[in-house]
Design a protein that fits this description.
Largest sheet: 6 strands, mixed
Number of domains: 1
GO molecular function, one term: ATP hydrolysis activity
Bound molecules: adenosine-5'-triphosphate
Number of strands: 12
Keywords: ATP-binding, Nucleotide-binding, Transport
CATH topology: Rossmann fold
CATH superfamily: P-loop containing nucleotide triphosphate hydrolases
Low-confidence stretches: 236-248
Distance between the termini: 47 Å
CATH architecture: 3-Layer(aba) Sandwich
Order of helices and strands: EEEHEEHEEHHHEHEHEHEEHH
Pfam families: ABC_tran
Protein name: Fe-S cluster assembly ATP-binding protein
Helix content: 40-55%
Organism: Acetitomaculum ruminis DSM 5522
């Protein structure tokens, strides 16, 4: 279980304190598939990073399985079972895709196992397995490779920050199947930041973050209808429109 208690995060901008996360309380139970959504700039990515230890909270407490991880660094949190796929994935010059997947899995997995992870995220494995994880890969390819590494880690708690970002509409259809599959097969907890209706639609719970606070948290059936007509719904409508235009 992940518990955020009174979590506050301030930064200094132009000499002034800017509050990004504001006394936020949130509990995420084990084994849940939770989607965080909300307006741009509401604090979702910042919150995900703070859970992973990328940045130190100003006030409050973060507990993971009852252990206070507030002061723990990224490596310690990763070792306790947290994984994170960034909104903007990073490159690893000199490291091949297969090496990265082996590092993520924590063992020397076979080429065929590594290929399975790549296939899960819709990549034609043999074309990528020996590629270097550098800037020669497109944003969408890097994103999918990063998602594959998080799947390979098989940790208790996986965070995906906007997995749809930078992924084309055709691959997005595959990605939905990836997350539907993760939902069915994963033993741990999954926390996804997303604006996409199809991802929101497979959630157990939806959390709406706005102005650094939890505006709403409840079951999908409770929260989802209220989101219709908001930016999330508009994003979806735009995606559908783009899809129609591109198939013309
Ligand atoms: N280090 C920082 N210094 C100043 N402002 C910051 C910093 N980090 C985040 N912010 C601001 O905090 C707010 C929340 O940012 P964040 O990226 O968490 O939003 P978000 O909800 O993930 O948005 P989006 O849906 O657009 O990805 C934004 O206004 C952002 O500009």
């Amino acid at each position: 279980m992940l518990e955020l208690k009174n979590v506050t995060y301030d930064v200094i901008e132009d000499g002034k304190t800017k509050r990004i996360i504001d006394h936020l309380n949130l509990t995420i139970d084990d084994g849940k598939f939770v989607v965080i959504t909300g307006p741009n700039g509401g604090g979702k990515s910042t919150l995900a990073k703070l859970i992973m230890g990328i940045g130190q909270i100003t006030e409050g407490q973060i507990l993971f399985d009852g252990v206070d991880i507030t002061e723990k660094n990224i490596t310690e949190r990763a070792n306790l079972g947290l994984s994170f796929a960034l909104q903007q994935p990073v490159t690893f010059k000199g490291i091949k895709v297969i090496d990265l997947l082996r590092l993520a899995a924590g063992e020397r997995i076979s080429v065929s196992e590594a290929c399975d992870y790549l296939s899960k995220v819709g990549l034609c494995a043999k074309e990528y397995i020996d590629r270097e994880v550098n800037s020669s890969l497109s944003g969408g390819e890097l994103k999918r490779i990063e998602i594959a590494t998080v799947i390979a880690r098989k940790t208790k708690f996986s965070i995906f920050d906007e997995p749809e970002a930078g992924i084309d509409l055709w691959s997005f259809q595959n990605l939905i199947h990836v997350f539907e599959n993760i939902r069915k097969t994963i033993n741990g907890t999954v926390l996804i930041i997303s604006h996409q209706e199809r991802i929101l639609n497979i959630a157990d719970e939806i959390v709406v973050i706005q102005d650094g606070k939890v505006k709403k948290h409840g079951s999908k059936d409770e929260v989802f209808p209220e989101l219709l007509g908001t930016s999330s719904a508009i994003n979806t409508a735009c995606s559908k429109l783009n899809e129609e235009v591109s198939t013309c």
